[in-house]
Amino acid sequence: MGSREHSMGADDATGSPDRHHSEVTLRVNGKPHTLIVDHRSVLLDVLRERLDLVGAKKGCDHGQCGACTVLVDGRRVNGCLLPAVALDGCDITTVEGLAAGAAGATGEELHPLQRAFVERDAFQCGYCTPGQICSAVGAIAEAEAGHPSHVTDPEAPSGQPVPLGPDEIRERLSGNLCRCGAYPNIVRAVEDVIR
Amino acid sequence: MKPYAYARAGSVEEAAELYAAHPGARYLGGGTNLVDLMKLGVEEPAALVDVSRLPLDTVDELPDGSLRIGATVRNSDLAAHPTVRDRYPALSQAVLAGASGQLRNAATTGGNLLQRTRCPYFQDTDEPCNKRAPGSGCGARDGVHRDHAVLGHSPQCIATHPSDMAVALAALDADVELYGADGPRIVPVAEFHRLPGDHPEQDTVIRPGELITGVLLPAAGAGLPSLYRKARDRASYAFALASVAAVIGVEGGVVRHAGIAFGGLAHRPWRARQAEQALLGAAPTTAAFERAADLELAAAEPLRDNAYKIRLARNLAVDVLERLVPPAAT
Ligand SMILES: Cc1cc2nc3c(=O)[nH]c(=O)nc-3n(C[C@H](O)[C@H](O)[C@H](O)COP(=O)(O)OP(=O)(O)OC[C@H]3O[C@@H](n4cnc5c(N)ncnc54)[C@H](O)[C@@H]3O)c2cc1C
Ligand code: SF4
Ligand code: FES
Ligand code: FES
User: Fold this and answer.
1) Are B265 and B159 in contact (CB under 8 A)?
2) Domain closes at, from A98, A133, A159
3) I want to staple B168 with a disulfide (CB 3.0 to 4.6 A). Which of A96, B14, B94, B243 is the partner?
4) Which residues line ligand 1 (CB under 6 A)?
5) Ligand 4 pocket, A162 CB below 6 A?
6) How many CB atoms lie within 10 A of CB B282?
7) ipTM tops 0.90
8) CATH number for the B5-52 domain, one of 3.30.43.10, 1.20.1250.20, 3.20.20.80, 3.40.30.10?
9) Confidence band of B68 (pLDDT split at 50, 70, 90)
């Protein structure tokens, strides 16, 4: 599906704004990057091909698998469906930016979810893992902010944090597919962190 | 993908002007449907007019007790809004039954209403499809159509509208607020999407260049019990095979208010007016619910492989109504 468009326009590192290109500033993992992007480039391609951040993966390129999940202004989104030009001025966090003291600092310490994924062996090939972890970071924040899910009791008081049991975790992470079927341990890893 | 121009609108008026100034333009909301279709070659806009940052991102209570949802309110924020959850629970439930957490964070109210069908022939530019390429034929009619329409379809097109949110809005008597060259206008959600007829390329009654600015939920019906239930192939993250949204008010042992809409059955959210009429003034019993659902679905014209939807929709409707009015309360 749609593979002919892969990497379209994401390689023109130079050039100036014109009808089909614009300058954008993206703050990625705390560091601002100003670059000229082809309007067709989606965030995922800019991260991987222009900024060398290859943690976020391209699975389906159509919003169906979640491998490309990153956080934009703290909210999890699919990087494959967002034109980078529309994100001018946004704060972006990728899996590379989750560890404390990331971006090359010494004494880098894994994010609790990263640690839990390692401890629980929550992956096999690892291709879906960066997306799973970013998605879980976003999902935990959503639950804390009182966002319900499809499986939340409709009688639960609105505006209150939603406790995350296994059913809630499964539902909230359903946008992240794992072809290796590591789901049981992914759910356990997330449970470890929220406990 | 063909190269395209990009412009970000700062106001509703500017959005309409930018659209007019760029022939072949499309509005960009969250992009979760439009960008997907551009990657597939189904959409080939010459320009994107970005409306995702318009100051239409709030849910506001109006003096008359109605609720106004701005067009750029993200689906996740709409579903989590305390007033929406408390007064229009079916709307929150419908939004949460669709797509994924990531997609709902990006998707907007306006874009959700205007998302295109998931018919696989529509999405594949090598296949015939009257909706994508008028006059090319309908690949689904004699092809794979298990997910397609059983109500209101035409020889030209048997597609369904995929939105869960729109089904709840139709049952709740919501209106769509539009802004175009002729100024603002309002269209009921239940009349916003069209039946395919001879023009399946037109999903809705929106005019070229018109912008959705918001959705209005009426005060009448606010706080009545309402519910959304969706049947799908997986427990999560799949489009509806059939779904039902219903809001019901019972007083003195009889039904005084009924709003019922089906999803997954037609080219638009199917407002079940006949079923509602049958229920008004009647006692809310299981037998009455069954009669009402059967009456509405009597017009169904299933295709070779989707007759299952009729029974599925009927049972969903009866179940939802029973949950809303438990036998003990009648
Ligand atoms: C894998 C996947 C699964 C999904 N599952 C479901 C599901 O189960 N249920 C469901 O309901 N949906 C589902 N969706 C669809 C999703 O809900 C829609 O893609 C989303 O709601 C579209 O909103 P958007 O803001 O991203 O729209 P966009 O993609 O930005 O726009 C969609 C259309 O609306 C137009 N538009 C946008 N905003 C405006 C405006 N304000 N005024 C006028 N025109 C406008 C655009 O020009 C475009 O034609 C799924 C999508 C994906 C990719
Ligand atoms: S059902 Fe409609 S959308 Fe699908 S192939 Fe036929 S004409 Fe196209
Ligand atoms: S690559 Fe973005 S969802 Fe699959
Ligand atoms: S670990 Fe292989 S896809 Fe998830």
Assistant:
1) no
2) A98
3) B94
4) A 63-64; B 26-34, 36, 51, 71, 75, 98-99, 103, 106-108, 110-112, 114-115, 162-165, 211-212, 239
5) no
6) 17
7) yes
8) 3.30.43.10
9) very high
